[in-house]
Specification:
It contains 5 helices and 4 strands, in the order βαβαββααα.
């Protein structure tokens, strides 16, 4: 199986995209961000999972596609579908902080 990743499809000027991308960066979750206005193939992916519309943000985690999710929903999807990505988050990211606060070792 190939390496899994979190792909965030977005477009300039979208406040929902900005909110999601900021929330994921704050959590240190590694993502691949794709601007659908500069990538026709990406726009086609979004239309294929958003009922023919170019609704962003759209996020794909493995085989799961989510239209306009919250950062928390993306993290939960990663936990369920690609947990190895949590271990790669920058500086241990939010997962390390959360585990330390919960007393996990």
């Amino acid at each position: 199986m190939g390496e899994r990743e979190v792909v965030v499809y977005w477009r300039p000027g979208c406040p929902f995209c900005w909110r999601l991308r900021t929330g994921l960066r704050r959590r240190g979750l590694p993502t691949k961000e794709v601007n659908i206005w500069s990538d026709p193939d990406a726009a086609a992916v979004v239309r294929s999972v958003a009922g023919g519309h170019e609704t962003v943000p759209t996020v794909v985690v493995g085989d799961l596609a989510m239209v306009n999710p919250t950062a928390g929903q993306v993290v939960n999807a990663v936990r369920a579908h690609a947990p190895e990505l949590l271990a790669r988050s920058s500086n241990g990211g939010w997962w390390t902080v959360l585990r330390s606060r919960l007393g996990a070792r």
